[in-house]
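Methods — Computational structure assignment.
A single polypeptide chain was analysed. Its primary sequence is given first, followed by the predicted tertiary structure written as structure tokens.
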Amino acid sequence: MKSSIITTAQAAKILGVSPRTAQLWTESGVIPNWKTPGGHRRMFEADVLAVLNRHDEIIVAPRRVLVLAPARRHANWSQAFAALDISELDFIEDPVAAAVALGATVPDVFVVEAEDLHTLPPHFLKTLRNIALLSRLQIVIATRLPAAGGAPPVDPALQFKVIQLEQDSGKMVEALVHHTHLKHLQLLPLPADLLNAPYPVGPTEAGRLRAVHRSGILDSASEEAMDNLTRIAALSLGAPIALITILSEDRQWFKAKVGLDMRDTPRSWAFCNHTVLQAGIQQFPDLGSDPRFADNPAVAGAPHFRFYAGAPITDEQGYALGSLCIIDMQPRQLDATQTEILGRLARLVTAEVNRGARPGATRR
């Protein structure tokens, strides 16, 4: 006898994925389901649990990582994670700040560096495990020394993994792959036109381009929510130009724009080539004096751009599709408040990008 009938939203909560991802899984048949006379999808809870328990490629691999470690060790961890397929890597030094960051960003993997297991703050991991939002969090403790005799300082029922802290980043990479769902970075071949591109191209560019076409956002119709967010960016940051850009193989297309008439530009003109390479805000205070951009046609000639600030917008897998950016004809610098505003608006744009399927979207 089958179990309870549930909705797509309820399935998403069980699986720990977004409602959009659950919707795609039902539409593609990953989760057995049917439609009601009103057109709503329904499924049996048992079928959803069966998907949850499968150890294959259906469940999206974790790609967001937070590392709690001393600042002097951040470079070592960066080197190790450079070989793994992750979308976000953040570092933090203080356990209290780490707890706040965990609640705000909800990473997939949390790595804690400790010289000895006894140095971990009392009840730190237990507190994390009691937070429902973090129920799927994978915890890895990296330590040089095993715990001294006696009872272990942390309860093994908390389902953490312990790895040996190594100077050799290769060994740490293998330990992380063995003890988490993280995977080695698989570099796909770049399109031939990008092999000698006159702008920076990241190691995951082929995957990023797949994500752009998979999203269906390229050349899609205008959307009021994104138009409004672009307008808010221009008004709140005092910028004559604000754009939501999408980077394809050969062009920079504008999903939404304020203060600019053109619909797209050659990709070689795009300052956003730099923004999609990393998380956070990219600022170029004086484009005219920056050797990377001084010869750019939009800088050297009309309209004589002089300032750029942008934040990446990403899909659900963490691939940067483009950016929310502002441009000015005068050199300037965003202050802390303005930087926060741009970052928050970019997160809202990201949410809109991932809100629903578009006619051009593909499932690859």
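Note: The chain has a mean pLDDT of 83.
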